[in-house]
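Escalated from tier 1: guanosine-5'-triphosphate holo job.
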Amino acid sequence: MTTDKPHQNLAMIGHVDHGKSTLVGRLLYETESIPEHVIEQYREEAEEKGKGGFEFAYVMDNLAEERERGLTIDIAHQKFDTDAYYFTIVDCPGHRDFVKNMITGASQADNAVLVVAADDGVQPQTREHVFLARTLGIGELVVAVNKMDMVDYGEARFREVVEEVKQLLDQVQFPTSDASFIPMSALQGDNVAERSENMDWYDGRVLLEALNDLQEPEPPTDAPLRLPIQDVYTIEGAGTVPVGRVETGQLRPGDDVSFQPSDASGEVRSIEMHHEEVDLAEPGDNVGFNVRGIGKNDIRRGDVCGPAADPPTVAETFQAQIFVMQHPSVITEGYTPVFHAHTAQVACTVESLDRTVDPSSGEVLESNPDYIETGDAAVVTVRPQKPLSIEPSDEIPELGSFAVRDMGQTVAAGRVLSVTER
Ligand SMILES: Nc1nc2c(ncn2[C@@H]2O[C@H](COP(=O)(O)OP(=O)(O)OP(=O)(O)O)[C@@H](O)[C@H]2O)c(=O)[nH]1
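Tier 2 regenerated the structure:
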């Protein structure tokens, strides 16, 4: 894969069984992104088994079977391209660790396709995923009204589903134009790559066209430097080398930087990327660097590096809007799970439940509730049990969201509204 086109991470979201995997399979198939030898092998098998024509369903069945055998052409991390972009599919929310991956930057999605089955309409997970997409800062949604073959390709049903989805998107204030609703069948291939003859009432874009027209993700360069530290190495000859990914801003040799919350600072001596010395690092760059006067025990994973003149914020407490995704019982004041924000993992206490809000409109439902539970959106005040660097998401979105983990699962996701500094 060359780099002559910009890259985008694309999330596939939607209720279980509405067709996310099938749609990914179809996109890969239509863009000729499934390796030729795999397709060829299926074609031969299909012929041997006398399956007549080479049906897409046959490809999907085989992909599913491979997945079960652990041979994984799994939908996560598959790549395809259009004229304008290279796309990488990132995990969908049902998959393990999706939320955590989204938040720790590993697979932060730029945009998403929301799959809604025409025969089923908006379902609980459709709601949940849309809310999550909003919380996690996904830019644009393309809505795939899928399984149109199951409703006789009828325009009236399509319009009904579009209305349902629009209501949901209005509630969470997700700006979406009419053109982003596409009636399709992932299984039959209608309106994915090719215009469907089964729906001549539709004259909008097909899915690949809509993806091709997405806005280019903007590199966030006007925020100050924020570089969460993943690891700290000691390298012979170079000394202490923190490594991490630049989330915002720029890093140059000669810069005076500060690491928070460890509170160490010094001047950047050199920066390395892909084993080569560079004189500038920008958002998305994974770098190792060397700072005058800083030893291995002065800084650690979970620190954030920023300009000494505008250092990363360290929170005494912070107020956040959270969405409870799955919790076996209820969350009350005093609850202390582990918060995952960028590369940090810190136990934090939910000090007060300030209010529950309509997950959609943000309207206050109840002030100072006694508890919150799965499906609730709430504003809470949180006290980290150890120093934690985190930023208001309005100011630096890349450092302003977190996942709440407990009992081996992500129980909630959230966005920082404000920080009371230490
Ligand atoms: N008729 C019809 N069936 C479809 C279409 N797309 C998907 N399906 C079927 O719907 C079922 C679920 O599809 P999946 O792609 O596994 O759905 P999913 O959303 O990925 O489901 P999870 O990964 O379990 O969340 C499968 O049996 C598909 O064959 C479609 O366009 N038309």
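The pocket of guanosine-5'-triphosphate is lined by residues 14, 16-22, 94, 146-147, 149-150, 185-187 (CB under 6 Å).
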